Amino acid sequence: MGLKSIIVPQDKIFFELFEEQASVVCTAAELLVDIFADYTNIEEKYRKMKEIEHQGDAIAHRAYDELNRTFITPFEPEEISRLVTALDDVIDYIDDGARMLLIYEVKKTDQFMIEFAKCIRQAADEIKTGISGLRTLKDTETIKGCCIEINRLENVADEILSNAIRNLFKSNDPVDIIKLKDIYEHLEIATDKCEDVSDVFSAILIRHT
Amino acid sequence: MGLKSIIVPQDKIFFELFEEQASVVCTAAELLVDIFADYTNIEEKYRKMKEIEHQGDAIAHRAYDELNRTFITPFEPEEISRLVTALDDVIDYIDDGARMLLIYEVKKTDQFMIEFAKCIRQAADEIKTGISGLRTLKDTETIKGCCIEINRLENVADEILSNAIRNLFKSNDPVDIIKLKDIYEHLEIATDKCEDVSDVFSAILIRHT
Amino acid sequence: MGLKSIIVPQDKIFFELFEEQASVVCTAAELLVDIFADYTNIEEKYRKMKEIEHQGDAIAHRAYDELNRTFITPFEPEEISRLVTALDDVIDYIDDGARMLLIYEVKKTDQFMIEFAKCIRQAADEIKTGISGLRTLKDTETIKGCCIEINRLENVADEILSNAIRNLFKSNDPVDIIKLKDIYEHLEIATDKCEDVSDVFSAILIRHT
After folding, report:
1. In this complex, do C99 and B162 lie within 8 Å of one another by their Cβ atoms?
2. Range of C119's domain?
3. Contact at CB, C175 and B169, closer than 8 angstroms
4. Neighbours of C197 (CB within 10 A)
5. Number of structural domains chain B divides into
6. Interval A81-123: pLDDT, tens
7. Which family is this protein grouped under (chains A, B, C) (predicted)?
8. What's the CATH number where B196 sits?
9. Is the reported ipTM for this assembly greater than 0.90?
10. C152 in contact with B at a CB cutoff of 8 Å?
């Protein structure tokens, strides 16, 4: 990190860290789709997820450290801190969604879970695109487009949740209802957290363009 | 909107949008009381709720757009953004409270739900009064009074929740418990979101009076 | 309060209020350990908890009032407000954790609850140490150490929650599952709220050192 600080202009470091975090979000989302769509070797896949989550944590900590050390930041420190936290939250909720399968000893995944995961992966891609745009802030339309798309995907996730819950209560096994309802709700919150990221994008656009 | 921008001084637009949002909060709260107190024609009443919620969304988007376009704002952009979000959250939780009746195929409402709805309606009225006061910030005592009352109502909702939950577990049908607990908790969160609005009122009073 | 304002320099008042709030957090956490570890005289112990919670509320309100009246504040008003709110949230979640035992008519506590409570008590001690350091901001390493420790304890609480939930589903009584899951999750959120306090510590360190 010390070397990096010499080579890379200070305020560029943040963009690198945001981009690294966004990559981790995408990798985690990709793995989540794989876990739900191909529910085999779960212990091993979850170990991989945990590694990804730790990578995300490490990047977030480096970003907070940089904020502590750096005077020149590309955006307000509060905005940087909000963005790092929001990206970290997305990763945490993806990880939670996968971990709950193990904790609840879920025997098989279902179509709703797969739809949620695909929705989260799409939002992750939009996050990655939006983050790339922050560097120059020249192409504000693209960033705005990402925000609109992430918002749309959050609405899609709401719809999936409604359908999943409605379907769930056709079962009459209360223990199953408790477990699956919790998993569905966690997956829906992952898309809320993506929307938190897009809210920071919007705030940055308001202040800096 | 283009025309409006010419006629209305820029920073007045925000007060108009806040007032429109507060009206939507009141209309939604009124309908919620009606739904719980007279549980008939639910599909139709819920369609009306969904329309109201969309109106709220449209106003919120206009407010965010204005924030993007406008240099002169009556309060800090962050305060405006927090207020718009908080008002939108109140509407969303009212809408959720009603939608869950449909998703869970609830056969009849109960006294606790009606009490929650009345509590939310009272808080909505206080929000409307508080919003009107923001224009001039002359009558700070009235706005402070709204904050105190909204806080009181949030405590009342806590009490309703405790009673409702205590009563609920007298039943021994776990599926019913899951459904009704979720509805009660959502209604209680609606009053938390009203408190978020009053927290923004307090923050604005701290900074601008 | 009027007298105090004369004797104590204005911006010192906030440190006194933070320290009073931190003491209340510690007292509440101590009582929570006692309630879980020695589950007797619950009604009486809960009355005590309610008193403690009201003390916390009163201090929070005094802090907000001071913010309204005072021009010279040691940190940004937003930081003070966030800190007061975060401390108040910790107290509220501790209180909730205890109250749920009564509402759910829980017959006996368990090892997981005791572990949660001890974890919360440790985090409360770190909060107290961190708050003391805010006065001079000379010993930033100690405050950073508190943040790291509170974060670690939040991870410990996550682990306790996973174990508690996994164990819980060995039971097949859905009503019990609903009750205990809710209690465990509330206790875990108490440690999240401790982390919110440490996030404010970090933000203050970033801006003021």
Report:
1. yes
2. 9-208
3. yes
4. 27
5. 1
6. 899 999 999 999 999 999 999 999 999 999 999 999 999 999 9
7. Belongs to the UPF0111 family.
8. 1.20.58.220
9. no
10. no
